[in-house]
């Protein structure tokens, strides 16, 4: 029987933007089902880096109608969500700018 001296929980960013968790074994262990030596075991657990980005990406990929309201400028959107999302928003949205004065009291 192989003895594993160290197990580390690690994460990896997937192209979809999700984060997957896996176990990193040192030294390698023998898989009881396949009898092969392995160093990593993926856990099937996924984390979402940014729910807003994931939602926009999903709607873009599925060509879904989307309405977004924001107080952010285009530059602030690019800084907050990155070039990829900013470019997709520019491609898939019609911008309607309201330049009304604010009703908020200072």
- Provide the spatial order of strands within the biggest beta sheet: 1-2-3
Provide the β-strand percentage band: 25-35%
Shape category: elongated
Taking all Cα atoms into account, the compactness measure Rg is: 22 Å
The secondary-structure element order is EEEHH
Helical stretch tally: 2
The helical percent reads: 25-40%
Q: Helix/strand/pairing class, anyone?
A: alpha+beta
Low-confidence stretches: none
Calculate the mean pLDDT score and round it. Answer: 83
State the distance separating the first and last CA atoms: 71 Å
* Total number of strands: 3
The description of the largest β-sheet is: 3 strands, antiparallel
Polypeptide structure, described:
- This protein has helices at residues 51-61, 74-92; strands at residues 6-13, 18-30, 37-48.
- It has 106 residues and is α+β, with helices and mostly antiparallel strands.
- The chain has a three-stranded antiparallel beta sheet, with no helix packed on it.
- α1 runs parallel beside α2.
- The longest helix is centred in the C-terminal third of the chain and has 19 residues, at 74-92.
- The mean pLDDT is 83.
């Amino acid at each position: 029987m192989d003895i594993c001296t160290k197990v580390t929980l690690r994460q990896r960013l997937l192209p979809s933007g999700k984060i997957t968790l896996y176990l990193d074994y040192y030294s390698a262990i023998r898989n009881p089902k396949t009898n092969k030596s392995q160093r990593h075991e993926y856990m099937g657990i996924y984390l979402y880096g940014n729910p807003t980005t994931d939602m926009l990406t999903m709607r873009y990929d599925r060509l879904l109608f989307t309405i977004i309201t924001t107080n952010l400028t285009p530059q602030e959107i690019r800084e907050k969500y990155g070039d990829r999302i900013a470019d997709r928003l520019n491609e898939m949205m019609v911008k309607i700018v309201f330049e009304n004065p604010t009703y908020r009291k200072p």
